[in-house]
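step=encode ok
step=design start
structure_in=
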């Protein structure tokens, strides 16, 4: 088995494969989200996890300012969830951010606490040091509640 590699998305084919991963997760990504994701994959920094030529997952980030970096999108192929790929991508993004002077990582996720698919998403971020700082209901442009999480990045 080939070791997993994480690198910056550069190939058009990788964008297509990232979008397919998201399409295969309809409980997390709706059509409006997929359209926004397609735009962001082409315009923002995206890291892809690759093994043996296969895209396993991706994370897209965008600077909010000189100190804060936001995770816009993150997904791992459905059949590979829970195997540490998301954690590795997150650690990669954190190191990338620290090397560029970012001090805070921000992520927004569904704030609808009755919607079960996002329970695992919220738990994922919380177990990796993210702290809920706000519930915005409704979140502008989403039409639904959003939870905002932050994580302070420690420099070595």
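sequence_out=
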């Amino acid at each position: 088995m080939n070791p997993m590699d994480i690198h910056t998305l550069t190939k058009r084919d990788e964008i297509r494969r990232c979008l397919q991963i998201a399409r295969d997760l309809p409980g997390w990504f709706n059509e409006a989200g997929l359209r926004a994701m397609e735009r962001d994959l082409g315009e923002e920094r995206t890291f892809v996890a690759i093994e043996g030529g296969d895209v396993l997952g991706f994370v897209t980030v965008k600077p909010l300012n000189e100190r804060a970096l936001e995770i816009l999108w993150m997904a791992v192929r459905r059949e590979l969830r829970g195997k540490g790929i998301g954690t590795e991508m997150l650690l990669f993004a954190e190191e990338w951010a620290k090397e560029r002077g970012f001090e805070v990582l921000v992520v927004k996720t569904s704030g609808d606490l009755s919607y079960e698919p996002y329970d695992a998403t919220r738990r994922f971020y919380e177990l990796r040091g993210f702290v809920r700082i706000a519930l915005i209901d409704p979140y502008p442009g989403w039409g639904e509640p959003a939870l905002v999480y932050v994580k302070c990045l420690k420099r070595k």
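step=design ok
step=annotate ok -> The first strand starts at residue 5 and ends at 8.
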